[in-house]
UniProtKB/TrEMBL annotation:
Name listed for the protein in its UniProt record: DUF1722 domain-containing protein
InterPro entries per record: 2-thiour_desulf
Amino acid sequence: MSNQPIIITTKLKIGISACCMGCPVRYNAKGWDLVKSLGREKSDFVWVPVCPESMAGLGVPRNPIHVVGADGRAIWTNEAKVVNRGGAEVTDAVKAGASACMEALERADITAYIYMDGSPTCGVYRTTLKKQKRGNPPGVFGALLLDKGYFLIPASDLQSPLKWWDWRRRLLAFHWIKTVEIEDMKTLYAVWHQLKFICQELDEPWARALGKKLAAVNREAFMDFVEVFRSEIMMVLRKPSTPAKITNRLWKHYAHYRKASGKSIPEINEPTFKRNVTTIAGELIKMERAAVDDGILFGNTPVIYRHRKPDYDS
């Protein structure tokens, strides 16, 4: 590892609520193709769509369902139940559908899941639509997603270029720190150097504290520290950033890029320049491409996916 971006050439597998890929599996036989908002970037991932309510055998169309009791977690401890609009209990069927979907995600070995908030099954932080108040989050399937520790992305954020950029770059870093081997102190320091800039952006007080812990680690405590180190970074990478933080860091890293490469990117504006989130996302993507082409670490995006071209000479 060095002062260059980490390049991932294997497509990440992402689970997704099937209705978000346009599958007409909602209770009213509708769905939304939110993934199309990603444009060509859609092909950078392998998608694994699932629908707990369809796998429950409830059919399409169907009566909408809701949780009666504390929340979706209580379903799994038999302290709540799921009923449909007609009053029929469908708890066992929904649990079976959620379990079947989780088994499919585990077989696929996914890294992340894109969930539909507002669903009594897939919802993570909200399980009702509009201003209805029926049950508390998480949903029945959402509870399993949280317990599994997946990198969770709300489907609505796929429609915002800047929010998706933020999720995507944190997801790639999350996947890398989850899988990278850290066998000695030298590698530990190198991994922190690679990720410290994005961690500082997301939570600077925490990053400073971790840096001090890292400096004080002795070889006897190395293995225990590595697992804490990995776990804490994965937790911080789940935190969304803000446009202000992103643009300030972009300008800071762009200054480093200009100094290191002797090149400039005219499209990148100062943080105080007024522009919309689509323009900011475009600037970030240009910065990413330039950093990869010139082999310079862009701290905002320390891990990059690039399609591996076929080797026709082999």
